[in-house]
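request received
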Amino acid sequence: MPPVHTRALILHAFPYGETSKIVRLLTREHGSQSAIAKGAQRPKSPFGARLQVLSEGTAHVYIKPHRDLHTLADFDVTRQHEELTRDLRRFAAATALAELLIRLCPAEPHPEIYDLTVSSLAQLETVPGEALDLASLSVLWAAVEALGFAPQRDACARDGRALPAGATVFSVADGGFLCSRCARGTRSARLGADDRRVLERLIAGEVSDIALLDAKHAAAHRRLLVRFVERHLAEDRELKALAMWRELA
Amino acid sequence: MAAIEDLIGELSKLPGIGRKTATRLTYFLLKQPPEAGRRLARALDAVATRVGPCSVCGNLGETDPCVICEDTRRDRSTVCVVEEASDIGAIERTGEYRGVYHVLGGHLSPLDGIGPDDLRLDGLRARLSNGSSVREVIVATNPSMEGEVTATYVRGIVEAQSVRVTRIALGLPVGGDLEYADNVTIARALAARREME
Ligand SMILES: [Zn+2]
Ligand SMILES: [Zn+2]
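response:
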């Protein structure tokens, strides 16, 4: 069977066995896939320097139906996103995004997730330093939303009651905002009207009209996102890149 | 049987060695005279008991400080930062470098949970701080995304101490053929072009 050619992003690449590498790919036409690049650890491998994390290009993959591990025949890099390495915070945000996709993106076609991810990486690469906090929060929330795990915020996450405007409570355990009755006695995060609006905009990926976050608010937003993701998307396990992104001021 | 299994188990923990290779190596050793196996055991015991990291630079050796840090003919004003102690050997074999080294012990890799606290960066800061004779730091981390982000991070530390920082040039392998180089490598080589002398 001939290889399929698909636009793809390398989410992670790591050594496998004595000479090969395994790459986790986000493909545009086949969703998230793992493939073995045979011989890629050899010094004179035709893969050369191409199998780098966050590289974007065309993957030539032999897809074996009903198998978890396919074979990468070749990878033509079109964009390496090298600017992400000029700042550890950018690199950590981008790899945290990759980590979410490795964990949660299914092996089914999701061109919209691919397109979103590619534009998110470009945004993380080019956004001015002072807006990086907002940009990284928004690309990560947008990925959570695109993967179908967004927090409940139209109605109370516990009993479905309508939520009044203004201040609210965000319950990580319940997976969203709570009405005042359900919020009674909980130790969940209280959000003022402004913080609520910022969070809603971050999840919707509409941050152009939001004022820059100060260090304290940015750190609180990072902690909230990581707790939500660990609770609902990772069975309470720590996600390494996401945890590092949370700690980098 | 237990002894054979033990050895296969230990060998297969080594990087790049699967169970199949570990089994092959074990049976190879069993065919040798017993003295060959004892020599290997003594060599392993010697590195385990005598070799350790240099408290100055992180190089591996039998003395602390290591032979490079102790060598008075080396230029202490230049420090070359590398990811692993094994990289020192590669640079030493060129015979071109007379400065000293600093081993980070890896590279930054968020996906693998390796952050700044996991590298020997405090030791680097200490070597560059007040009263230091270091005038230049050469960053020789690997030409990978992780190596580059590590280089960026090291640069921040070095510049904070007002010390000159340089990066080794990345590009085409000597003796290589332009036509067969991958486009990433060619792009790097173009970006790192220099005036012809
Ligand atoms: Zn309620
Ligand atoms: Zn030393």
